Amino acid sequence: MPATPDLGTRTPQLASPDLLRSVFRRHAAGVAVITASGGAGPVGFTATSLSSVSAQPPMLSFGISTGASSWPAISGADHVGVHILGEHQEQLAATFARSGADRFGAPTAWREGPEGVPVLDDVLAWLVCRVVARVPAGDHRIVVAEVVLGDPAGSGRPLLYHQGRFNGLRD
User: Fold this and answer.
1) Is residue 160 part of a domain?
2) Looking at the domain assignment, is residue 69 inside a domain?
């Protein structure tokens, strides 16, 4: 039987949304923007849940709340864009995270890319992916997508999200 860990004077908390948020504030994550074509125009949102799933075939996943304004478009999209943001793009990340923002208006620079997916300019890297599954997970869906093509050649350092703020890497 494993030994009981010494927790000192700390008392563990029961599972709750607040516990999960508190723990993940301590987890530094890369920042991505997910885009898709929508019926009324392009949609997009900031995601820190991006994950590599498989190298063969090349696949990734990300989570999206079913209450998100982008969910209706993402729920029916055949393809999505995945953009890895650089530390110089804190404002872009904030714009795509803000409810009610004009995410594709100035100063956001973008173009229509392959499969009609909105592709953001000046990012560290971008991919266009074919959606292969939307897996229910509580009040979210985990979207699994297969990479179709992309460009990994942007320059700069990655933008991170930690302790509720966007940050760059420290030297």
Assistant:
1) no
2) yes
3-class secondary-structure state, position 91: helix
Which tens digits make up the pLDDT trace of 109-152? 999 999 999 999 999 999 999 999 999 999 999 999 999 999 99
CATH number, domain containing residue 53: 2.30.110.10
The token pair at 22 is 């508190």
Q: Is the separation of the CB atoms in 92 and 126 below 8 Å? A: no
Q: Give me the domain span that covers residue 30.
A: 26-151
* Residue with the two structure tokens 């904030």: 94
* pTM, two decimal places: 0.90
Q: How far apart are CA 146 and CA 131, in angstroms?
A: 6
Query: Roughly how many angstroms between the first and final C-alpha of the chain, as a whole number?
Result: 43
C-alpha–C-alpha distance, residues 21 and 9, integer Å: 22
Contact 120, 33 (CB under 8 A): yes
Residue 167 lies in a domain: no
Q: In this structure, is residue 9 part of a structural domain?
A: no
Q: Which strand (E) or helix (H) includes residue 20?
A: helix 17-25
The angle subtended at Cα 148 by Cα 64 and Cα 129, nearest 5°, is 10
Structural domains in the chain (count): 1
